Each structure stands twice: as structure tokens, then as C-alpha cells.
Protein 1
Amino acid sequence: RPVGSEDHDAVTRLTDEIRCSLASVSPDFDSLLDAVELRAAADLVLRTEPAVEPLSEVSLAEREAFAADLADLPTAARHEIGAAVGEYHLLLGALGVRDDHLVPPVGLSTLVRRLVLTSFLVVLLAPFALMGAAVNAVPALLVMLAGTLAKAPVSKGTNRVLAGVVAFPAAWALLAIGDVGSDAAARSFGVLTSPLSPIIRVLYDDRGGWGPSLLVFVAAPLFGLLAVWLAERVIGCYRLAMTVWGNTQRRGQLRILLDHRADTVERIDAARHADRAP
């Protein structure tokens, strides 16, 4: 007979199969404490790799794979890793330092290079980024508001997606249509799109017709992404400056922390390479 919603046995079998399939590709930890300790250990070891940039995040996929490998170790080895990581993070917390402030090393030369590059990008791209921020501010607020209207986490995400699909294109279209012409509304919208004025003059001579409108419609989301990217660069520069300043105030303590960190990584490696349970 055909399988339907009333076939509870088939639904149960399918649910069990989905659960097993998800479990086979997901890290399996004995407890929440195990998960926290082993992920922190993976983060420590992976951050030591030479390819990691200062203040950057460790790859989530690599961290989860590393932590899952540690989860297969014998109980005694996992406890040793947990103790080592716990001692190190207790010391970090007592001194108010983060691990990514220590490794990779963050120096003054790195800060100067980042400041010079970021300043150049801000001067060059700020007009376009400001346009992107102004154009996308209202739809972004609507998306945030839509998420607060639902109580269930799944509904929050759905509301945000639906609101974004409607609000952002509507804002871009309104700007693209309102920017055309010579009336007061067009002049007001023209203030927002003024960074595009030189390009419009070169390509179309004036703001009349569908060409300038299409250009504005395409540029609005691109400049919004540019605004987010540039803001992340500026925030990253600020974080880097605060890290360098903090490290200069703790020169004596940094050596102790780095030595303790190296010892922690050695203890993790020793536990990893110990004999596994049969």
C-alpha cells in the first residue's frame, strides 16, 4: 500500500535513518564539557599553524574535524587534554588576554601595514560604502524587526529571509525609479546616489531613461556589501590596535603565557599520540 502520513512505522524508520545519517557526519562528544574542552584544544593547536593570519578565526571545518578526532581518544587522554586547556584558559581569563592576541604574534609592524592599507581603502571607497549603508539601512532594520516578531528560532530565520527577499529589492527598485527625473524627489534620491553621478555622466549624459536606473539598481546591493566589508576592515584595525596596546602593557606576563601555551600544546600532542583504546 502507498506510504502516507498515517504510516507511523515508515515515518519512524525514516526519522531514525535521518538521525543516524546526521550522527555519522557530526562530532559525537560524551558531554557538553567534553565538546567545549576538545574544541578549545583544537583551536589552540590549529592556531599555531604558520598559515594562520593574526586575529583571524580558525577554520570551523578543521576545528570540528580535529575535535572529533580528539573525541575518539581514551577517557584518560581526554581528561588530560581538558585539564591542560582548562589551566591555560584560567590563566588567560585571570590576566584578561585572549589566545588570538598571543598566537600568531601581533606586532607594531603588522598594525602599521594594516592601518596604511585600511586608510587608503577608506579614502578611496568611503563615498560608495556610505551610499550602500544609507540605501540598505532601512531594509536591514526591517529584517531585524521581522526576526523579533517570532518566538521560535526556526520562525525567526524564516521571517528574516522572507522580509529580506521583499525589503531589499523593493528599496533598490524605489531608489532606481525615484532617482530618475528632475523633480524634488529625484533630487533627494540623487543625493544618495551622488557617488554614481560621474559614471552616469560618462555613460548616459544624464539621469533620464532606464540605463541610469538599472545602474543604480545593480550598484545598491554591491555597495551595501562594500559597506559591510569596509566596516569589517575598520573594526579589525581597531581590534588590532587594541591588541598591540594591550600586549605592550603586559610584556612581562606575555612570556609566561606563551611558555604555558607551548606546554599546553605539547600536552595535547602527547595525549593525541598516546595509544588509543582498542
Protein 2
Amino acid sequence: GIDTEKIEVLFLERSKALDFIMDFQYAKTTGLSLAILWHLKKFKNV
């Protein structure tokens, strides 16, 4: 699952979250970036 610390990331502004994802593509925590992408996709559907 996702740590409580990492969950805070999901509540960032979309623009900041996108920059965050770009940085994390090169990191080892791919699961976190996928969680953010899913969260952003959820926003688009609203």
C-alpha cells in the first residue's frame, strides 16, 4: 500500500503533481506515481 506520508502527495495541485510524477519516473517508487496518475485521471472524469 501507500504510506501515510506519501498520501499527502495525492492532495497536491494537479500542476505540481504532474511535475512530481515527472521526477518520480526516474525514481524507484513507480507505484506512487501510478497512484497519482490514477488520482489525476479520477479528477478528469469529474
